[in-house]
What does this fold into?
Amino acid sequence: MISKTEFQRGRSCSRYLYLKQNNNDLAEPRIGSAKSPANSWQQVENLAYQLYHGGVNVFDKSKSLRELAEDTIKAMEGDASIIYQPTFISADGNYYFRGDLLVKAQRRWKLIEVKSSTHIKLPDHIFDVGFQYMILKSLNLHKKIDVHLAYINKNYILKGELNLSEYFIEENITHRAKEIQVLIKKTLVQFEKANQRKYQPQVDLGKKCFDKEKCIFYNHCWKGIPELNVYSIGRVLNSQLNYFKELGITRLDEIPSDARLSDSQWLEVNAALDGEERINKSRIKEFISRLGKGPLIFMDFESSMPAIPQFKNSRPYQQICYQYCVIIQDSIGKNEYTRKEFIAEPGYDPRASFVKSLLEDTVTPGKIIVYNKAFEVTRLRELANQFPLFKDEIEERISRIVDLMEPFEKKYYYHPSFKGSFSIKVVAPALSPEISYKNLNIQNGSIAMQVLEGMHLLSFEEQIIAKRDLLEYCFTDVLSMVHILKNLNNLIKKEAA
Ligand code: SF4
It folds into this structure.
């Protein structure tokens, strides 16, 4: 039987569906994702249950799909007017789905699919609901069930208690589900053909294999693909991949010299092939000269963007800054530095105290160095809008910001280990190997976000530990920047020597 999730995945890759149906033993086990709890679909779905409270949950993991489908029909025929997690199996027994909510609205039912997005994602959400409609139609239930989508109202502003009927937007999209039936049928016919084959369908490997998350069959499908492959080129376009495919090229060393790659991509390819770093010393020198004599203020923020607003006057998915770390150094390479930091009290709106404390800690004149300035500048502009009193001071800090990502993004320095990326977690091991995240309890930004959002739910003792871990993590990011700059500067000094 093909589930809704498999149908959706199979739309982008027929081999996925084939493997899922015929060789599921080749799948890699899923490792839990580091998604923030407040961003998770589960929490949003729970809110939808609260909006339609008092229902009956017909899901029971000890039961078979058939039993669950029977229980759903029984509940519909009984007294229930709200049913959670209803299961339906198509009349031919080939397809099934477990929905989110089934709500009786006068003489009809609404099957509501809950999404944690702030809009209807095309075409995915329509295919999603269209698949449900196809199954309902096969059971003749489309005559009494409409299909709806509920998603988050991005303009909702929390004023007090969360108002669920304003937080969610619900749309009847039955007409769109009907319109897409022809395409769904066509897709299912293709699935059948693919599944009847004796061999796995030949498909193009590509971004679909690791786009949102790594496919469970990645290790199987990519077995034998060389590490230095055309898919690893940074910002590679589909048109470029198609061109390589036409030429039958997978390995980087097979790329013809007249291939249409950007200068930046050629630099990457050549560095990967000869294993040598690329250093444009004059551009690095020019970048460093823009920093002036000092002092230098290194700065990093930690934030989260909860799907469910936690503080008054905040919106769903609004970035909230909870924490920063600042290191002040007299000049590049100086061993002594001053460390300043802030972390919000769990459960309290951190925005006002964050901005006040930050302005105090960055009052020292000198360039303010961040990594990926778009993030910090945007957060500061948002704070300036929320706190007009501090607008001028915030703008003054923004005017001093310099982006340490520039030398890597513009490839003044490139190391083959970057593999087209220039995130600090990729750059740091090459340029500041003396700084390690290995012994930290928090080792990346997604975990930090998760801890920040959930900290108010911890015990007092756990909060102390979480705060300590977060402070160490943010400090390590900033210290990495200090060392990256020092080592970039050393590259120039080597030339002078
Ligand atoms: S790894 Fe790629 S080709 Fe293989 S099943 Fe997954 S998406 Fe399809």
About this structure: The radius of gyration is 27 Å. Residues 13, 15-16, 19, 203, 205, 208-209, 215, 217-218, 221 surround iron/sulfur cluster (CB under 6 Å).
